């Protein structure tokens, strides 16, 4: 179960699109591939299925369960970046002429913010419970 | 402006944990699978339909 409200996932992706105008669209998944949010322009029709396949590909390539992984794919029409961390998998699409390091930097920053929000929410819930 | 006529081949690069990034072999199942997913997300026609890929 996710520790942050779903609106936080939507906001996180919108923030990512604001951070980089090169990013056309983005997806946020949990590490099992369940779709948490999407934003911007993504051509795929079935994003839930796409999410599952992306997460499965990341799992296959990661050496250990929940290992951090970065994948960038450049094709003729653009590029796709995928970042997998302990809790989330994030993917985004851009045009071809981007600097991969900068895109991953922005993606890491957004996932770090989400982790912080989850930690803060957990503390708040513990406070409410006690 | 003149541009160098470069061949832009598709490529898939992977980096696990803090290791070195490595390029997946062209035509390997993992690379093909990720290219297919990327093309779907980008909205690019599958490669066999593209006559202009060099």
Topology at a glance:
The complex is a heterodimer of chains A (130) and B (54).
Chain A: H1 6-19, E1 23-30, E2 35-40, H2 47-61, E3 69-75, E4 78-84, E5 88-94, H3 100-129
Helix pairs in contact in A: 1-3
Chain B: E1 11-16, E2 22-23, H1 29-42
Antiparallel strand pairs in B: 1-2
Summary, kept brief:
The complex is a heterodimer of chains A (130) and B (54). Chain A is an alpha+beta fold and 130 residues long.
Structural notes for this entry:
The complex is a heterodimer of chains A (130) and B (54). Chain A is an alpha+beta fold and 130 residues long. Chain A contains three helices and five strands; from the N terminus they run αββαβββα. The longest helix of chain A has 30 residues, at 100-129. The mean pLDDT of chain A is 91. By secondary structure, chain B is α+β, with helices and mostly antiparallel strands. Chain B is built from one helix and two strands, in the order ββα. Chain B has one helix at 29-42, and strands spanning 11-16, 22-23. A two-stranded antiparallel sheet of chain B has the order 1-2. In chain B, a hairpin with a 5-residue loop joins strand 1 (11-16) and strand 2 (22-23). Chains A and B meet through helix 2, strand 3 and strand 4 of A and strand 1 and helix 1 of B. Strand 3 (69-75) of chain A pairs antiparallel with strand 1 of chain B, so a sheet runs across the interface.
